[in-house]
Amino acid sequence: MSERFTKGMARNIYYGGSIFFFLIFLALTFHTTKEMPKRDHRENITESVVRGKALWEDNNCIGCHTLIGEGAYFAPELANVYDRRGGEAGFKAFFNGWMKAQPLNIPGRRQMPQFNLNDQEIDDLAEFLKWTSEMDDNNWPPNIEG
Amino acid sequence: MNTLKYQSQAVAKPYFVFAMILFVGQILFGLLMGLQYVVGDIVGGLIPFNVARMVHTNLLIVWLLFGFMGAAYYLVPEEAETELHSPKLAIALFWIFAAAGVATILGYLLVPYATLAHITGNDLWPTMGREFLEQPTITKIGIVVVALGFLYNLGMTILKGRKTAINMVMMTGLIGLAVFFLFAFYNPTNLALDKYFWWFVVHLWVEGVWELIMGAILAFVLIKVTGVDREVIEKWLYVIIAMALISGILGTGHHFYWLMTPAYWQWVGSIFSAIEPLPFFAMVLYAFNMVNRRRREHPNKAATLWALGTSVMAFLGAGVWGFLHTLAPVNYYTHGTQITAAHGHMAFYGAYAMIVMTIMSYAMPKLRGVGEANCNRAQVVEMWGFWLMTVGMVFITLFLTGAGVLQVWLQRLPESGEALSFMATQDKLAIFYWLREIAGVVFLLGLIAYLTSFFVKEKKAA
């Protein structure tokens, strides 16, 4: 077997196989990006949501939290925090109070830093989290706790 | 005693040395974070967790890149049988990359991240604040410049020399690394697209082109320490990386299960990522087979140990621990828990940290003019380092897995209303986190032993 199966054949499988599957990957990616508008509700991305995403990034929120399961595993999942903390009725009020109360300074408890955001910025961040919570991510997470 | 075949290979040395300095930093910040997991407010005001984590992960990525570059500068000229195109360029790029790296880490530590984003003009071209891609845009541009110079230097070397399979695979891997990094500059305002293409950097690096780099380095070291025929080693190198890419490219789908993507990714990702352990298993068989069929007794026993160790640990960390949570119905419950952290730790250590230490173990005695191998005493200390770090990492992984299983049990499996909250769950996991921290200290002791081995000399005869 080892005589008949040569290095040249192995090389061809490598190049041929990789290129073939990479092309399939690109085709599926193309199809996925076509399907995505139905699921991400991009028509609801307002100026406020855009600013909220920038704030999310500029304060490195992903360094402690997960967003749809990706990020650090030190602090709660935030893709569904909008639903977990009051939704339409109560989220914004809760969130404003929460951001201003940090750090909680409970001895031994993990500390969230104080990011000194103003009311407008807190509202933008809330709009970003609200929009995120409304995307169709194939029904993840399994329950409200994230 | 100079045993270098080509004098320009010497440029690899500063890359390896600096990689180890960054490695020490990575581990110290890792220990700090491990402590923050259980004593939440420790130095919280001074070094918040998100900063420590950014330093921990970015140091890892950068020291591995230094390691890969050192490996390339060492093995490409030897494979091509010619001197490096421009050793001066290699040294200049070393200083540029090192300065940019240090400045970026200091930026993380000395100013709040939002300030760093502001002063580096992130609002002009926002690329920051995404996991592993936290570097300021200007640093990212610097990385691209360094990568281009590096690829130019190696490309010119290969063009004028012998084009071996190892060199071609190494080069394809490094070009792929540079090309996929370009997706770091794409940060659309739509989070759905942002997340999808973020994986083009992260997954296609670690489960794609980095495996080519690992395969090429391993093949190079195996040829050197076993003396087995190049034709045989290169044939199996092709087989392994063929399996790696055929499974790994569509295996990207296991990151698309819970994005704003069609549900077919749950099938595509599950099927192809179920094959992803195979190339790693093949790598174990291959490494052990080649060592058993060795035609020479290389005096560097430590390098052989690293070569065997990296294949086994990559199989366990990337292969087995990856498979553990890769099937969509399982991943639905485990996604983003400590299971992921367990897998990430062992996979990075086994596949990438260990492959860099494999080539270092083989090359450093030659780069330092010691000869073919370090003295026996130094090798014994190095092997202590190998075992303490590896056993430490095995236990880190086991304890994080324990934490993850319990987390899934308490927080993910029950219905809403019955499930424990994230923070309440974390309190229940404290014992696992404490044990993980102890395993982390063992790892640090291993790292100290490893670094000490560079300074151990043969006892003078009385």
**Major sheet attributes of chain A:** 2 strands, antiparallel
Topology-level CATH name of the largest domain in chain A: Cytochrome Bc1 Complex, Chain D, domain 2
- The fourth-level CATH homologous superfamily of chain B is Cytochrome c oxidase-like, subunit I domain
Write down the overall mean pLDDT of chain B.
Answer: 97
Structural Rg of chain B: 22 Å
Q: What's the arrangement of strands in the largest beta sheet of chain A?
A: 1-2
List the helices and strands and how they pair.
The complex is a heterodimer of chains A (146) and B (462).
Chain A: H1 7-40, H2 47-58, E1 66-67, E2 70-71, H3 81-84, H4 87-101, H5 119-134
Chain B: H1 12-38, H2 49-80, H3 87-110, H4 113-119, H5 137-160, H6 165-181, H7 191-226, H8 230-251, H9 264-275, H10 277-292, H11 301-324, H12 328-334, H13 338-367, H14 376-412, H15 422-428, H16 430-452
Helix pairs in contact in B: 1-2, 1-16, 2-3, 2-5, 2-13, 3-5, 5-6, 6-7, 7-8, 7-10, 7-13, 8-9, 8-10, 10-11, 11-13, 11-14, 13-14, 14-15, 14-16
Short description:
The complex is a heterodimer of chains A (146) and B (462). Chain A is mainly α.
For this entry, give a set of tags.
heterodimer; A: 146 residues; mainly alpha; Cytochrome Bc1 Complex, Chain D, domain 2; two-stranded antiparallel ribbon; 5 helices; elongated; B: 462 residues; Cytochrome C Oxidase, Chain A
Description of the structure:
The complex is a heterodimer of chains A (146) and B (462). Chain A folds into two domains: 40 residues; 106 residues, Cytochrome c-like domain (Cytochrome Bc1 Complex, Chain D, domain 2, Orthogonal Bundle), CATH 1.10.760. The longest helix of chain A has 34 residues. Chain A has five helices and two strands; from the N terminus they run ααββααα. The radius of gyration of chain A is 22 Å and the shape is elongated. Chain B is mainly alpha-helical and 462 residues long. Chain B has one domain: Cytochrome C Oxidase, Chain A, CATH 1.20.210. In chain B, 75% of the residues lie in helices and 0% in strands. In chain B, α7 runs antiparallel to α8. The chains are: A mainly alpha (146), B mainly alpha (462).
